[in-house]
Please model this.
Amino acid sequence: MTHQFLITDLIEEVEKILDDVQTKNTAGETVSGVKGYEQSLPVVMEDEEDDSKYFPYFIVRMGEGSTEDDNDPWTDTVNILFGVYDDDKQTNGHRHILTMIQRITDRFAKEPLLNRKYRAQEKMSFALQDDDTYPFYFGGVEMRFSVPKMGRSDGWS
Model:
């Protein structure tokens, strides 16, 4: 198991959890599901393009990892960051963000195992943006996962 596989597996799981969430893209079209990315959004290569074309999205970003001793697994901190577009002034894009946060935290609170390899720890936190960035809304969840690690060997084989 590696830290990279945790990111990949988590993206796959979150896409499943959010597959029926309906939001809008920046063209105003209703879309179902949310696309996930590793660490950041793809780099925009052309002058006339901008990263708003990726809405709605989430990013799984590895924060830090630590381990205490030979007998403990790695503890990896990951952030799941959300971005949605909502130009309807009667609704509030934060509701979409909160729905996504609730589904993810409920899933890992109820069943902490991910792909039978990683275990979500109970401590989770979330946040919504402070600033008004209408019609774009942002938020995120911070989670910690126990990740198996290679055992130490005291000799050469």
